[in-house]
Amino acid sequence: MKPLIPARKTNAIQYVIRDIILLAEQVAKSGKALYYLNIGDPNVYDFKTPPHIIEEIHRAMLSNKNGYAPSSGVKSAIEAIERDARKKGIDNILDIFITTGASEAIEICLTALLNPGDNFLMPTPGYPLYTAVQSKLELEPNPYYLDEDNNWQPDINDIRKKINSRTKALVLINPNNPTGTVYSREILLELVNLALENNLLIIADEIYDKLIFDGKQHIAIASLSEDLPCITFSGLSKNYIGPGLRIGWGVASGKTNIMKDYLEAVNKILRARICANHPGQYAIPVALDGDQKHLQENVLRLERRRDIVMNKLKNVQGFHLIKPEGAFYAFPSIDVNDDNHFVTELLRETGVIVVPGSGFGQKPGSNHIRIVILPQEEMLEKSLDLIIEFYNIYKTKFLN
After folding, report:
1. Domain of 304: which CATH number?
2. What is the per-residue pLDDT across 310-349, written as a single tens digit (0 to 9) for each?
């Protein structure tokens, strides 16, 4: 029997956040201690899922809510998501559906819209899920740049130049992963106008919308126009410290006559894949309507850890960091020739695991690393000291 040949569409799929773990496993075998600054999983560190969420899932399982759920989700959970969306100013809601994490919702919505050869505008830097979906659907890459000189806000002129006859959607990640930027009202309004002028669906990934620093306000782009065709994504993974629960959702908004056929296509896929985790869905009303005190506590912890990163790197020649305003990441530029090489050597020599900026996309000629700011403060400080110490050695060895 001949070896099985994988589909061409898998050739370009990379997920650098987890791919680097393969090297980390090799390094660990040498006995070197590892310092994980690579994966945005709060439960790996000192963040815990609020007990009332866990208790509600347990109750649902004991009540035998272990069979199939409706394809779009259970009624009480959908109603809670609608209440939360209306609090954010999203009033023209057409549909709500619950999925296996926000990532499934995003993939379903792109699949229902795009044919091979089409494209969507992908933020760069941005989360690698989107490039993986792009490869699976055999789409043409169409990245747009975030402007590092403008606090990593979307570059409106760059977006405008890249819209073509096969562009069907515009992806926003707000707050952004990996930069931690929160988009301004002015930029969001410009994006609304661009989408309306060019018949684009907005894919609004707002999974970190309740983790905002320094008293800033997060604005849901769907709240800025009742005409805007938009699907807003969120879930329990980040705000509610439950990534392994795999509970996410999408809120579709806009005009019925624009969205009707498309949303039927989305629901065809939802029905074909049966349902999301049934007992987990009962945590949604408890999470969204229940005690929110963990959010304030977690934001304060993340602000302190963000400040540790800022203070450690601010005087290091060769690093430049735009202050993160939300989520759990810092994305400093670094003066090296190849961020992949730097990250690999850093891991081998120090055990510190960060992610190369090239895994998220970046402007040609620039180099960055993504640092997860979730670790406990002592570990974060030690890891940063190791990065800085190694960078000084690396410059002498590789850059002179």
Report:
1. 3.90.1150.10
2. 999 999 999 999 999 999 999 999 999 999 999 999 999 9
Kindly report which listed range (16-30, 111-125, 149-163) carries the lowest average pLDDT score. 16-30
Domain boundary among 272, 289, 306: 289
CA-wise closest residue to 123 among 367, 360, 317: 360
Task: State the DSSP string of 145-202.
Answer: EEEGGGTTEE-HHHHHHH--TTEEEEEEESS-TTT-----HHHHHHHHHHHHHHT-EE
In angstroms, the CA 334 to CA 247 distance is 36
What is the domain extent for residue 156? Answer: 51-289
Within a domain: residue 393? yes
pLDDT class of 18 with cuts at 50, 70, 90: low
Domain annotation covers residue 2: no
pLDDT of residue 24: 80
Q: Which of 265, 289, 313 is the last residue of a domain?
A: 289
**Quick one: which of 73, 72, 69 has its CA closest to 61?**
69
Looking at residue 262, which CATH number applies to its domain? 3.40.640.10
Number of domains in the chain: 2
| Residues belonging to the chain | 400
Distance of CA 232 to the CA centre of its chain: 13
Q: Are residues 83 and 144 in the same domain?
A: yes
pTM reported for the whole predicted model: 0.95
At residue 155, what are phi and psi to the nearest 5 degrees? -85, 100
Q: Is the pLDDT of residue 188 over 90?
A: yes
Q: Do 28 and 112 sit in the same domain of this protein?
A: no
Enumerate residues 6+ apart whose C-beta is below 8 A from 29.
Answer: none
